[in-house]
C-alpha cells in the first residue's frame, strides 16, 4: 500500500512538472528552443519508425556492450584489489584519476582513434560506467565480517570457500547498487559518444535535428533515451530481486 502511494505521489509530481513546462513553453512561444511536451510527444509519434527501428537499436547495442565490458573489468579489478594490497595501491588512484578527466574532452580523442565506428562510443561508455561497479564491488568484498571469516577458517575452510561462500554473497548487494548507477550512466555515455561522432543512434539524431533548429525533434530521442535508462534500471532491479532473495528473509 505504501509503495502504491509513493508511485501515485511521484506521478503527481511529474504531471505537475509537465503542466508547468507546457504552460511556460506555450507562453515563451519559441518551439525551436523550448518545445512543449505536447509538441515533443507529437514529434516522437511522427518519428517513431525512424527512431525505434534505425537509431534506438544502435544505441542499445552500444549500451549493452559497454556495460558488459564494464562489468567484466569492474569485477576483475575489484577482486584483484581485494586479494592484493599492492594491486589496490596501484589501481585505486588510477580509478579515481580516470573520473577526474571530463569525458566530453576525451570523447573527440576516441573518435580520432577509432573513427565513427561503434568502438569509440563503447570506450566512452566503459570509461563512465566501470568506476561505480568497481568501487561498489570492492567495498562489498571488503565489508565481509572478520568474525565470520575467522570462524570459517577455524572450521577448516580454504580461501576459495571463504571467497565463494562469504565474500561473494556479501559483495552482491554492493555490486547491484553499483550496476544500477552504471546502467543510468551508460545511457549518458552512449549519447555523448554518438553526439560527437556517429552515423546512427539517438544521440546522433538529436544532434542532427539541432542543426535544423527542430526543438521537438531534438527532445524526442532524449525521451527515448530516458525510457531506455528506466527499463534497464528496472531489469537490473529484477535481477537483484532474483539473486538476492535471501535478503528478504533476513
Automatic annotation (TrEMBL):
Q: Where in the cell is it found?
A: Cell membrane
Transmembrane segments annotated in the record for this chain:
7-28, 60-80, 92-116, 122-141, 162-193, 213-238
Q: What's a single GO BP term from this record? A: transmembrane transport
Please provide an example of a Pfam family that matches this protein in its UniProt record: BPD_transp_1
Q: Which keywords has UniProt assigned to this entry?
A: Cell membrane, Membrane, Transmembrane, Transmembrane helix, Transport
- Family matches, as InterPro entries: MetI-like, MetI-like_sf
Cross-referenced PROSITE patterns, in alphabetical order?
ABC_TM1
Cellular component, GO annotation:
plasma membrane
Report what the protein is called: ABC transporter permease
- In its keyword annotation, does this UniProt entry include Phosphoprotein? no
Top-level taxon of origin? Bacteria
Q: Which family does it belong to?
A: Belongs to the binding-protein-dependent transport system permease family.
Q: Where is the ABC transmembrane type-1 domain positioned along the sequence?
A: 56-236
- Membrane topology field: Multi-pass membrane protein
Amino acid at each position: 500500500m505504501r509503495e502504491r502511494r509513493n508511485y501515485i505521489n511521484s506521478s503527481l509530481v511529474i504531471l505537475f512538472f509537465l503542466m508547468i513546462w507546457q504552460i511556460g513553453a506555450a507562453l515563451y512561444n519559441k518551439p525551436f528552443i523550448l518545445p512543449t511536451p505536447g509538441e515533443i510527444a507529437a514529434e516522437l509519434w511522427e518519428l517513431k519508425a525512424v527512431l525505434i527501428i534505425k537509431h534506438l537499436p544502435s544505441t542499445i547495442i552500444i549500451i549493452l556492450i559497454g556495460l558488459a565490458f564494464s562489468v567484466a573489468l569492474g569485477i576483475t579489478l575489484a577482486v584483484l584489489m581485494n586479494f592484493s594490497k599492492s594491486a589496490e595501491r596501484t589501481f585505486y588512484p588510477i580509478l579515481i584519476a580516470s573520473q577526474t578527466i571530463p569525458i566530453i574532452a576525451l570523447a573527440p580523442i576516441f573518435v580520432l582513434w577509432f573513427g565513427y565506428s561503434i568502438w569509440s562510443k563503447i570506450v566512452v561508455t566503459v570509461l563512465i560506467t566501470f568506476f561505480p561497479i568497481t568501487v561498489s564491488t570492492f567495498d562489498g568484498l571488503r565489508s565481509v565480517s572478520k568474525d565470520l571469516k575467522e570462524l570459517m577458517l577455524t572450521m577448516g575452510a580454504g580461501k576459495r570457500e571463504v571467497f565463494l561462500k562469504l565474500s561473494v554473497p556479501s559483495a552482491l548487494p554492493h555490486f547491484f547498487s553499483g550496476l544500477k548507477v552504471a546502467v543510468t550512466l551508460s545511457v549518458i555515455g552512449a549519447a555523448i559518444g554518438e553526439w560527437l561522432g556517429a552515423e546512427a543512434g539517438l544521440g546522433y539524431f538529436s544532434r542532427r535535428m539541432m542543426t535544423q533548429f527542430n526543438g521537438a525533434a531534438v527532445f524526442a530521442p532524449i525521451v527515448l533515451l530516458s525510457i531506455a535508462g528506466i527499463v534497464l534500471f528496472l531489469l537490473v532491479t529484477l535481477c537483484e530481486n532474483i539473486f538476492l532473495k535471501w535478503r528478504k528473509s533476513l
